[in-house]
Amino acid sequence: MASSVHADMSFPQNLVLWLHVAFVAFTIGPVTLAVMSTPRYIRQRDTRILRYLNRITFVFGLATLGVLVAGAALASMISVASKPWVIVAETLFLVALLLLALILRDQRKALKALEDAADTQAPAGTVLAEVDPTLAEDDVTGGQAGPNGGSGSPTAATAVTSTSSAISAAEVQLANVERGRIAMMGGLVALIWLVILVLMVWH
Question: What pLDDT is stored for residue 3 in this prediction?
């Protein structure tokens, strides 16, 4: 807030102001860092870190509501709630919260896609065992005669493995699509934070 306004504030108003600043310092930074780091770990296919970043985005994204509540309370206490710059700032903040909700959804979709891709990348014998135990035995023994005297089935093994690879590639492609969306929306959220900061400092 402006220095002239700050000087005329009462103790309760100053208390709400510092609460507002504390919410900004301890929520906006972590949630922005988590969002901006997500595309990197999607590219690296690190599901463990992605799960952690998704949790941070949810917790600190929810905590950013404190910024909005404290800011609105302070604006009402100092009688600037109807000012155009306050209304613009609050509207932009709501847009940022909506974008964070979309980012949370896309983080989970990317995480699930990468986990599904990892699940399909199983050894050939394991994949074949799910289809036909006889084929799995033939694959492990290198095409030796099976229990009925037949030979192994490398064609079937190749087909199943190729199908698994195709599924895995499709899941990774889906994760990459989500990575692009998260990067775009994360940049927009960061820009919104910057515009709101300028509005606060300017006034």
Answer: 43
**pLDDT, tens only, 79-132:** 999 999 999 999 999 999 999 999 999 999 999 999 988 887 654 444 434 444
Would you give the distance in Å from CA 60 to the centre of its chain? 12
- The helix-helix angle for 84-120 and 65-77 (nearest 10°) equals 170
How many Å apart are CA 85 and CA 93, to the nearest integer? Answer: 12
Which DSSP state fits 16? H
pTM given for the model: 0.75
Long-range CB contact pairs, 82-88, < 8 A, 24+: 83/203, 85/199, 85/202, 85/203, 88/199
Q: What angle do CA 142, 144, 146 make, to 5 degrees?
A: 125
Token pair listed for 57? 């985005």
Q: Are 120 and 171 in contact (CB under 8 A)?
A: yes
CA 71/CA 199 separation, integer angstroms: 13
In the chain, the percentage of residues whose pLDDT exceeds 90 is 61
Q: What dihedral angle (degrees, nearest 10) is formed by the CA atoms of 139, 143, 149, 155?
A: 80
Q: What is the spatial distance between Cα 183 and Cα 157, in angstroms, rounded to a whole number? A: 39
Instruction: Please determine, for residue 183, whether its predicted confidence score (pLDDT) is greater than 60.
Output: yes
Residues 6 or more apart whose Cβ sits within 8 Å of residue 139? 124, 125, 128, 152, 153, 154, 157
Q: Over 50: is that where the pLDDT of 66 sits?
A: yes
